[in-house]
Every structure is written in C-alpha cells, then in structure tokens.
Design brief:
CATH architecture: Orthogonal Bundle
Number of helices: 13
CATH topology: ABC transporter involved in vitamin B12 uptake, BtuC
Largest sheet: 2 strands, antiparallel
Helix content: over 70%
Shape: globular
Number of strands: 2
Order of helices and strands: HHHHHHEEHHHHHHH
CATH class: Mainly Alpha
Low-confidence stretches: none
Oligomer: single chain
Distance between the termini: 37 Å
Mean pLDDT: 93
C-alpha cells in the first residue's frame, strides 16, 4: 500500500461528502464536533501504539479509560477532592494499572493479550463497584471544565491530541528509545543479543500506555461532566482499528504515529458523512470492525512482502560458493 494512501483517501472522503452534503458536512460546526469526539479515540489509539510498537497488545485501555473518567468525576463530587488532585490520582492509578500489566508480561511471562484482558476486566469491575452502577454527577469547577474548552475555535482536546502525537513522533523518529522499541517489536531475541534491555522497555511501554489512557480519561470526564461505569470499553475497537489501519500507510508494515492519526481522521470522516446521509447508528461499529479486519489483512500482506524482499536481498548479498 502507498505511503500516502490514507491521506489520499481522507482528501477524497472530504471532497465527496462536501459535494453530497454541502450544507452540513463542510461546516465549522461539523468539523469541531468531529475533532472533539475523536480526540479521545486518537489519544487512546496512541496509547495502544506504544506497547504494540514493541510487539505487545494492551486490551485494558478501554476499561482503564472508563476508570480514569470515573475517578476524575467521583473523587471530586463523591469524595470532595480538589480537581487538580483528582486528575493527578486518576492518571497515577491508570499508570499503576499499566505497571501491573507490565509486571505480568515481563516478570511472570504472561502473554500480553491474556494479561491485559484480565487486568481490563478487573478494572471494569472496580469501576462498577465504585459507582454502584449509577451515574456520578455534580457541581464541577470551571478550571476543570476548561480542559474541554476551545482555543481560537478549535477544541482543546484535539490540540492536546496533536501535541501528544508530535511528541511521540519525535520520540519514535529521533530518539534511541523509539528505535529500540521498533527493534524489540521486530525481534525481541535479537534485541536482547545486542544489549537492549527488553524487559525494562517492555514494562515502560505499558506504564506509558496507562499514562496516556488516564490522560484521555480525564479529558473524557471534562467533556461528559458525568461518569458511568459502562463508558470506556466501546473505545477499544476504534483505537485498535486506527492503529492497525494506520500501519498500512506512512511507514507501511509497522505501527506509526501519523498513520494512526490519519486513520482516526479517515474513520471519523467516513462515519460522519455516512450518518449525515441517513445511515443508522450501528454503522459506526460495523465500519470500525470492517476496517480492523481489512487493516489486519493488509498489514499481514505488507509484512509478508517485506520479509520476502529481505530474504531476496540476503540471497543476493550471499557470495557464490
């Protein structure tokens, strides 16, 4: 797949829906709404990307997102804590959950799929216990609600997501840590042989994923202004779909920051346009699920072709006997 394929798809989608829906789609209100709604998906997708770049899955992010937004609201309205402390504790607990997953994977050698699935289920249960199955709401300070405000007409959550993406791109493109993560993801055994501390880096990816997810949960809480135990898990599929779909573009064959961001925008534009054309609400999960399947198939094909090219180059480089 072309490096710029997703960018081309995004431009085509924007042009098509703008022609079909000139009064509703290409409007500042619609773009603000989409950016505000998908900023959480973008942040969660970036959280998924970190452990996935090292070859591990974090299936707990949906439940951790839910718990973070529950704690952010609940610690203020239920326990009377200042909003700054509530935000800090929500993010810290999310990072702690990531650390637990990291310990299970690195120390106890539990597969990341099973470890994070189990941890996520426990976290979901904790959120249900804390809320008692009821919605948490109450008076929230203006300073906290400002997290979901606008800057020059642009939703602040979207600006935050962009800043996080830029920082992560710099880390993955120009730092030794970013290169190490890709090496670990490609071949952890080879990474160990060249002296890369695989376990330490793997553990760190889960902590970083927890931090980013907790941060996203805080923003979600500021947007919703209330908390429910059922919120969170539904963000998991769109996040994974974006990361894996993004791996087919920009740097085909491996997860990357800008591919992920473009995938979020493509999915958002497609769903928004289809819904404005009259598609039912269920089109979004159907579309996300379909894109996930397609992304996995394309990624597998790209990886296979890359391996074939590598083998061919090795055969050509091998001197004749």
């Amino acid at each position: 797949m072309s490096r710029n394929a997703l960018l081309v798809v995004l431009i085509l989608l924007l042009a098509t829906f703008s022609i079909l829906l000139p009064d509703t789609f290409p409007t500042a209100f619609n773009f603000r709404t989409v950016l505000n709604e998908k900023a959480i998906v973008a942040l969660l997708a970036l959280a998924v990307l970190v452990p996935l770049s090292a070859g591990n899955y974090d299936l707990s992010v949906g439940s951790v997102l839910g718990l973070a937004h529950i704690l952010t609201i609940g610690l203020q309205v239920k326990n009377g804590l200042p909003w700054g402390l509530a935000v800090f504790l929500a993010i810290a607990i999310s990072a702690l959950v990531g650390a637990v997953s990291g310990i299970l994977v690195t120390r106890f050698r539990v597969g990341s799929f099973i470890a994070t699935l189990g941890v996520g289920t426990i976290v979901y249960g904790i959120g249900l216990w804390y809320t008692g199955g009821e919605q948490l709401n109450g008076e929230l300070p203006d300073g906290f609600l400002a997290i979901a405000s606008r800057v020059l007409g642009v939703p602040l959550p979207a600006i935050i997501a962009l800043i996080v993406a830029i920082v992560m791109w710099l880390v993955y493109s120009y730092s030794l840590a970013g290169r190490y993560l890709y090496v670990i993801g490609a071949n952890p055994r080879a990474a160990e042989l060249v002296g890369i501390p695989v376990k330490a880096f793997t553990f760190s990816t889960f902590v970083a994923s927890g931090l980013l997810t907790g941060f996203a949960g805080v923003i979600l809480a500021a947007e919703l202004r209330a908390a429910q135990s059922a919120i969170g898990p539904e963000y998991l599929l769109p996040a994974f779909a974006a990361v894996l779909f993004g791996a087919t573009s920009i740097d085909p064959g491996r997860v990357n920051v800008w591919g992920t961001v473009l995938a979020v925008l493509v999915l958002a534009a497609a769903v928004s346009g289809l819904q404005q054309l009259g598609a039912k609400a269920y089109v979004e999960p159907l579309f996300n699920g379909g894109m996930l399947v397609i992304a996995v198939a394309i990624a597998a094909h790209v990886t296979e072709r890359r391996q074939e090219r590598r083998k061919a180059s090795h055969r050509q480089a091998k001197p004749p006997s």
